[in-house]
């Protein structure tokens, strides 16, 4: 009698070599971009420590001070214009990130992704550490911190186009919205881990709040150099199918278990090798990427959606600290609930958009719902701890859901659009255009918050609600086209369809 295989071995052999590689690449790229976001978060946590209410801090007996109100602050953030200076730091990073992103996609199409990502993570780690070293070197120059932020912003642009292009190389259309919605939780996971790690050190030695995340992202850069596989063909795995059944008459599951295709001949199932069509090696031009249907609309929508998301990313801990009177660590820990809601929102957006076949409609509905929720959070969100928790989770889901969907599944859909058949090298450029445009909003949002917040937090929230409405308006034509498809006037394509 033949002995049965052990359960663990049966599990391992249930998946093909292709599936194991795809799962491994998904995990690696998740880890890489978690590290990118982890290293961005400390600045929002440390703000409350750089300028705080010194009357609540115990003053050392041997400390000679000249100002009782600002003795515990870190110059130059000890003056009344500290919010403006924080806005300068935020925008030094975000403007550099937005400008660099448009060029990063071009480089990402033409350079080996493994080297490009490894270099970017190592340099991001260096500049993140340099910000924290300002604490130990007793640096009080705004120019130093602004320069470090600019360089870090440029280095961080290496991440998103490269990881999306890598995932796009390995995964086909399939259930792209759901899979990439789950995968995109790296953004929120990175924000949460960054907040928690920074919170551990913020009240004792805030420099370590930057140095530890900097070392983490540098370590992942080394991991990338040794283990990343850019394309399935590099390890003799089968390439994915990027086009849907309606487009080419066949379907390809996202997690494909074999390098062969099954066909039915006279009632019998036979296995034949998949014919791989050789693709053009020439990368797409910037104008060529802009001409892809839907790129401009989704890019402009993301500009305003990311404006809202990044304003929360950089200002939420300070808002909680000022309005609810939590200390820096507790405010940072509480702000992670916004990102927890973002994880659920991103997965939900991907799942719903896969099911209804409408990326634009899913984004538009969530953005419309986000407006009233932001209004309620500002007015009743701090009435009790339970209300704060609930509102942060709901607002996080509605704000980050559309942002996550556009930067992942929509970007992958457009980068492998039917009009590009025969040229898969558009993915990095398309992703960079969409995320680069969104990053303009990411730079403007925190800047506006820094300018408006002295007039009252209510005005900041009115600005955020207005941005959500504008994001919806840019999607209106696409929503109309999707509605036409559902009414039977145009052929329906699940996920993203030609418009």
Structure characteristics:
19 helices, disordered C terminus, 499 residues, mainly alpha
Short description:
The chain is an all-alpha fold. The chain has helices at 7-13, 17-40, 42-50, 82-110, 113-136, 142-156, 159-170, 176-183, 186-201, 208-227, 245-248, 286-290, 295-324, 328-356, 359-380, 385-415, 427-452, 457-474, 476-486; strands spanning 260-265, 268-273.
State the separation between the terminal residues, measured CA to CA. 61 Å
Radius of gyration: 24 Å
Strand line-up in the sheet with most strands:
1-2
Largest sheet, if any?
Answer: 2 strands, antiparallel
Estimate what percentage of residues fall within beta strands. Answer: under 5%
Task: State the helicity in percent bands.
Answer: 55-70%
Q: Which runs of at least 5 residues are low in confidence (pLDDT < 50)?
A: 245-281, 491-499
Secondary-structure element sequence? HHHHHHHHHHHEEHHHHHHHH
Treating each run of at least 4 consecutive H or I residues as one helix, how many helices? 19
User: Could you say which structural class the secondary elements and strand pairing correspond to?
Assistant: mainly alpha
Summarize model confidence as the mean pLDDT.
Answer: 80
Shape designation: globular
- Number of strand elements: 2
